[in-house]
């Protein structure tokens, strides 16, 4: 209030003075003071706006997604540690991303399938740039292979895959050292150790002999118009979606969305995670997201933390 009052007084005073009443030096000084007060007032208004967001019901100790961020963030984990703890769309570097602030926070979502509204049998160019609904809170999308490369080239990232079937059962798979190469290397995929409840379908390590033809480690990305797999035909064309194929897969999360789970087709072209529901069950939900492997979870944000009552 004091800043606003001071600004009004100085502005009114400066406007009331004629050239004969004041020298140019004094006028310049008043104009500079007015400019400074305006800047301070804008900062104060922004601060008050953020305080109002923090005090909204259900948002205690959380910041809302805010596109007026005044610094660059490498990923959603940096946003989370900077106080932005509500899931939503944010700006990082040169791209807009959806940040999932659940499950410990700081996840950059790279793929989302939830209802089949988006077709994933897309061209190389579309998978390169990304596609889908990047505005709706529950939109389906692929973030883009160029973006996957840029994010994972910044350091050591873990990939978490959340899956759900049509009966409401949920499983997850997590891989360390997830990395996507650049377009010259056809977005080659590499990843490390697995933990989870869905089974290790990406490496095909669930059964002897399977990894030779099913492991996606070191595989290049393929689409119907860019065949980079190890199969004599085109896996992406047969299975109707862009993905890292070998000969062809035990995991394919960009396949056809079948609305009832079990399906029949000439090939296993559904949203498949073989180690959980097999080749002929297409999952209801698939969400792929990234976070730095060394991300430190605050105990208050850790969903697996055990809260003990203080001793009496």
Question: How would the blueprint of this fold be written?
Answer:
Elements: H1 2-16, H2 24-54, H3 76-81, E1 88-92, E2 95-100, E3 107-113, H4 124-129, E4 131-132, E5 141-142, H5 145-152, E6 157-164, E7 170-180, E8 189-190, E9 194-196, H6 211-214, E10 221-222, H7 235-239, E11 243-244, E12 251-252, E13 272-273, H8 274-277, E14 285-292
Antiparallel strand pairs: 1-2, 2-3, 3-5, 3-14, 4-5, 6-7, 6-14, 7-8, 7-9, 10-11, 12-13
Briefly, what is this?
The protein is of the alpha+beta class and 312 residues long. The protein has helices at residues 2-16, 24-54, 76-81, 124-129, 145-152, 211-214, 235-239, 274-277; strands at 88-92, 95-100, 107-113, 131-132, 141-142, 157-164, 170-180, 189-190, 194-196, 221-222, 243-244, 251-252, 272-273, 285-292. Mean pLDDT is 83; it is low at 45-64, 66-70 and 304-312.
- Round the Cα radius of gyration to an integer and report it: 26 Å
**Biggest β-sheet strands, sense, barrel:** 10 strands, antiparallel
Q: Would you identify the CATH architecture of the domain at 76-292? A: Alpha-Beta Complex
Shape: elongated
**How many distinct beta strands?**
14
| CATH-level-4 superfamily name of the domain at 76-292 | Gamma Fibrinogen, chain A, domain 1
Strand content: 15-25%
Helix content: 25-40%
Which stretches of 5+ consecutive residues score pLDDT under 50?
45-64, 66-70, 304-312
Briefly, what CATH class of the domain at 76-292? Alpha Beta
Total helices: the number is: 8
* Structural class based on helices, strands and sheet pairing: alpha+beta
Spell the H/E element sequence: HHHEEEHEEHEEEEHEHEEEHE
CATH third-level topology of the domain at 76-292: Gamma Fibrinogen, Chain A, domain 1
- The mean pLDDT is 83
Beginning-to-end CA distance, first to last residue: 47 Å
């Amino acid at each position: 209030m004091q800043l606003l009052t001071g600004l009004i007084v100085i502005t009114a005073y400066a406007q009331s003075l004629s050239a004969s009443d004041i020298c140019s030096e004094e006028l310049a000084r008043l104009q500079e003071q007015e400019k400074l007060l305006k800047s301070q007032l804008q900062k104060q208004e922004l601060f008050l706006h953020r305080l109002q967001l923090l005090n909204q019901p259900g948002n205690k100790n959380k910041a809302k997604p805010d596109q007026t961020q005044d610094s660059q963030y490498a990923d959603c984990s940096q946003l989370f540690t900077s106080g932005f703890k509500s899931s939503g769309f944010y700006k990082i570097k040169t791209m807009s991303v959806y940040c999932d602030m659940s499950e410990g926070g700081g996840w950059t979502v790279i793929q989302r399938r939830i209802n089949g509204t988006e077709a994933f049998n897309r061209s190389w160019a579309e998978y390169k740039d990304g596609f889908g609904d990047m505005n709706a809170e529950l939109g389906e999308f692929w973030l883009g292979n160029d973006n996957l490369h840029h994010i994972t080239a910044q350091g050591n990232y873990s990939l978490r895959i959340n899956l759900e079937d049509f009966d409401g059962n949920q499983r997850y798979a997590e891989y360390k050292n997830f990395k996507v190469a650049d377009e010259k290397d056809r977005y080659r995929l590499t990843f490390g150790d697995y933990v989870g409840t869905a089974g290790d379908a990406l490496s095909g390590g669930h059964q002897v002999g399977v990894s030779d033809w099913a492991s996606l480690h070191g595989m290049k990305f393929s689409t119907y118009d860019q065949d980079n797999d190890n199969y004599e035909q085109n896996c992406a064309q047969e299975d109707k979606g862009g993905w890292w194929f070998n000969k062809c897969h035990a995991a394919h999360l960009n396949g056809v969305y079948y609305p009832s789970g079990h399906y029949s087709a000439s090939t296993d072209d559904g949203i498949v995670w073989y180690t959980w529901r097999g080749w002929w069950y297409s999952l209801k939900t698939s969400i792929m997201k990234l976070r730095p492997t060394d991300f430190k979870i605050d105990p208050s944000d850790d969903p697996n933390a055990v809260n003990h009552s203080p001793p009496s």
